[in-house]
Structures are given as C-alpha cells and as structure tokens.
Amino acid sequence: MAMEDKKNRGELKKDRNFCPIFSRLSNFKKISRFLILAFLLVFISSSWAEGPNMKEGLWEITVNMEIPGMNMPMIPSQTYTHCITKKNLVPQKEKPRESECNTVKTEVNGDTVSWVMECKTNEGVITSNGYITYKGSTFEGVVKVKHSGMDMTQHLKGKWLGPCN
User: Fold this and answer.
1) Domain 57-162 CATH assignment equals 2.40.128
2) In sequence order, what are the residues at sequence separation of 6 or more whose Cβ sits closer than 8 angstroms to the Cβ of residue 37?
C-alpha cells in the first residue's frame, strides 16, 4: 500500500534496480545511440574526404564558346589537355604569358566543383565564374567570363584519357 500511495503522489520514480529490464533497455538505448552517431560521423567524414567522383589524370577538355549579341558564325570549339587531380579540380588552359591569374574561390559540393577566377591583363581584369560536375571519367560544366563589359559563356566537356605524363 505504501508503494501505491507513492505512485499516486508521483513520488515513485523509475528505479533501475527495481526492475532489471529498465537497466538493460537504458544501456541498449545508450549503446544504440552511440553506434548510430559513430556510423554517421564515419560515413559523413569519408564522403567529404573522397571529394567528387572523378578520375585523376590527363583529361581532354573541349570548350564551345558563345558570345551574346554576336551575329557572326559560331566560334569553333577548342580542345586541350590538362592534368586534373583531387587537389587541383579546376580545368585550366595554359594562361597567357602577359596575364596573372588567381583562383579567388573554390567550392566542392558533391560531384560539382565551382570557382571564381580573376586574371589581370594589360587590357584589364577578366573575371570568370564556373562550375563542372564530374561523372567518373567525364564532366560537363559552364564558365561565365566578363571582360571589359563583354560577357561570354563557355560550355565545357571533359573526358579522362589516362594517367598524367
């Protein structure tokens, strides 16, 4: 009867020693939460460490350009090769000797790499904003270039050729 009175007054609290099942369930919950948290941390950190789904090595990059408002025949596509690694994910053509180019910002979000680059030339500053999405041994992307009030869009396609020389 004393226990019934305590229960009615709200004084009876779960006593882990009162019933061994409470003790086991509580420990199981703690262990389960810990294991789930540990699994998530390992999974998330390994995903970040891997970077985009791309093969390191020599890539062939094809660039198709379009300049809005230009009524001239389509500019022929340009193709070049570049060695791309997980540390250097932005495909770059050899920069002109008279320019100084710096990558201002680079972001990796899943398989997509985006960047902002500025090049200082004798004719002024060229700013480009680009992104590419890697798909293993291929990629596609777009670069928007601004220079002296003129805009240009470059469509990039890349394919992996093999190891770098």
Assistant:
1) yes
2) none
